[in-house]
């Protein structure tokens, strides 16, 4: 983890991984670097969940019929009051507004809630097709003092 004196805003990092759910631990380990000020711990936790959902959706849906070496690109940018996550894939795309309007069905067991979860976490959730890729963008405005600790009194 970088200390706050070294963190120059905006702080931007990227990672590229293959289309494989087994890459999720690598993605989450990479995301650990953002668990520091100015990102409040509670917002970081929510964004970690949103990132896991977005990555899983890209693998399971966007790249369902793609080769395992089809890349998924992830970008994170930290600003003084917001964090922005982008997940890029090569799928056929979908209508975010249509999915966002659908109610969560009682029979959703292991899947079907990812977009709703991201919607609740995000200050803004966008989806666009750019050339031959799709970009799911989540912007989260910080909800508390970035130097505050979690409820146990410390940051991880």
Proper CATH architecture: 2-Layer Sandwich
Query: Helical residue percent?
Result: 25-40%
Low-confidence stretches: none
Query: Number of folding domains?
Result: 1
Please state the overall shape, judged from the principal axes of the Cα atoms. Answer: globular
Radius of gyration: 16 Å
Rounded average pLDDT: 85
Secondary-structure-based class equals alpha+beta
Q: Describe the largest sheet.
A: 5 strands, antiparallel
Helix and strand string, N-terminal first?
Answer: EHHEEHHEE
The CATH class: Alpha Beta
Strand content: 25-35%
Task: Measure the end-to-end span.
Answer: 10 Å
**Count of individual beta strands:** 5
Here the CATH topology equals Heat Shock Protein 90
Query: What is the number of helical segments per DSSP (H or I, 4+ residues)?
Result: 4
The CATH homologous superfamily is called: Histidine kinase-like ATPase, C-terminal domain
How is this structure best described in words?
28% of the residues lie in helices and 26% in strands. The chain is globular. It has 156 residues and is of the alpha+beta class. The protein has a 5-stranded antiparallel beta sheet.
